[in-house]
Amino acid sequence: TKNRARDLGDNEINGNLTRESVNLPLSQAGKSGTIYISGSIARETIHPSSREDREFGNNYINSNFTRQSANSAPSQGEGGDGNETRESLSGKSINSAPSQDEGLRNQDLTQREILAPTSVTPTDGYPKNWLIFSDRSGVGREIASQLQKRGDRAILVSIGTAYQKLGQDLYQVNPCHLSDFQQLLREALKSPQDKEKSANQSVTWGVLHLWSLDAVSPEKLTPETLTEGLDIGCRSVLYLIQSLVRAELSQPPRLWLVTQEVQPLGLEKNSLGIAQSPLWGLGCVAAREHPEIWGGLIDLDGGHPQYQAVRLLHQILQPYGETEVVWRGNIRYLPRLIHQKPTASSITSLAITPDSTYLITGGLGGLGLKVAQWMVQQQGAKHLVLVSRSQPSPAVVAEVDELTQWGAEIIVKQVDVTRETEVAQCLNDIGDTLPPLRGIIHAAGILDDGVLLHQSWEQFERVLSP
């Protein structure tokens, strides 16, 4: 095979993803049962001297396993000579029958693919009908346009005050009304043209939720705007999932949830999208409770709607079994567990000092008290502030008294951490009367669980209250 790559060095990256690899089907590797681990990132310039060089999406493999960019399009080089610049990953083969202690290292790798924004060839069996909950920035409209050019049907759904059909394949719903989603599925997904199809031509639907892209930026986040973000994010998705499961469509749809700059990769220039982050938790639950309708979670970065649309099309039309995807530029990141032994440089000690104050929210609960005991009895903390919404019970008072016998000053305060004024007053009191505040352990929480199909938004609100 052709050796086209120049190694640029080991491809370790900072952040939560520590290794990179490419999922290449074993049948393409040339050696049955061979697994590859990453070795280097490479860039190459290909001179289009043959038809093979000009074809898009070819995979070239050299002796060290180098896979070129999938779906890469030719571009003009700096000199305008028509050369094609591609980026690739290279790796080294390892035994595919690992010993027991090597199993994790060999099987669970972080994948990184470099893709260029060009036309996408869908995998077999992809949906031909799409329900797109469209954002205001235009990503949804661009996706609908691209799908319609393929001959697919695309219905756009926008945020409104009440359910309304605005035109051909255009609807609006109120994200806070479950009945709007139910009516939408009854009327839009079961249209007369669908009913004309014979039983052996059942309609398949893809559902793309983009409303979270309209969430307020982290810089403008307030308790009020966070609540609004939860409505267009988690609340609308909860109602959508419940409606899809109960709709009894001829074929289960595939639901994709899209966010922007939620997942940390260590590459971020801006703050993370906190208002959208609960949607990933909800999505992970939906994947486990309702795999029959699950497509996946996609996290984008900023960019022009046209490029964002192409990245989304890459994923929804070529999922390859991946259900959690992060796009940064034209690079797709996928989660993998790796077996990694801690090194001295990766271990940091927690310094708890006796001349500092530590605040524990939910400090009178079971978890909060256990943390307080550990800090006092094992770490030597001398000043703790335990806050809770409720007054301590006699049993809790006894546990707090025991901590004071270790020579610690324990302050108990009744504070509702969802109220900004109460939190501010608590912090002011600490600043006026106690040593410097050096640490906060946030252990406050509410448990109100249940399966998604039977959850109400009131239950969500109690748990997610900012």
Sequence of secondary-structure elements: EEHEEHEEHEEEHHEHEHEHEEEHEHEHEH
Distance between the ends: 58 Å
The number of distinct helices, counting runs of at least 4 residues, comes to: 12
3D shape: elongated
- In which order are the strands of the major sheet placed? 5-14-13-12-11-10-6-7-9-8
Structure, described:
The protein has 466 residues and is of the alpha/beta class. It has three domains: 6-114, no CATH class; 129-304, 3-Layer(aba) Sandwich (Rossmann fold); 351-442, NAD(P)-binding Rossmann-like Domain (Rossmann fold, 3-Layer(aba) Sandwich). It contains twelve helices and 18 strands. It has helices at 51-54, 103-107, 139-149, 178-188, 192-195, 223-246, 278-289, 305-317, 366-377, 394-404, 420-433, 457-464, and strands at residues 6-7, 34-46, 66-68, 84-95, 111-114, 129-133, 153-159, 164-167, 170-173, 205-209, 254-260, 294-300, 324-328, 331-334, 357-361, 383-388, 409-414, 437-442. Strands 5-14-13-12-11-10-6-7-9-8 form a ten-stranded mixed β-sheet, with helices on both faces. It has a four-stranded antiparallel β-sheet with strand order 1-2-4-3, with no helix packed on it. α7 links the parallel β11 and β12. α3 crosses α8, α4 (178-188) crosses α6 (223-246) and α9 packs parallel to α10 (394-404). The radius of gyration is 27 Å and the shape is elongated. 32% of the residues are buried. Mean pLDDT is 74; it is low at 1-111, 114-118 and 195-200.
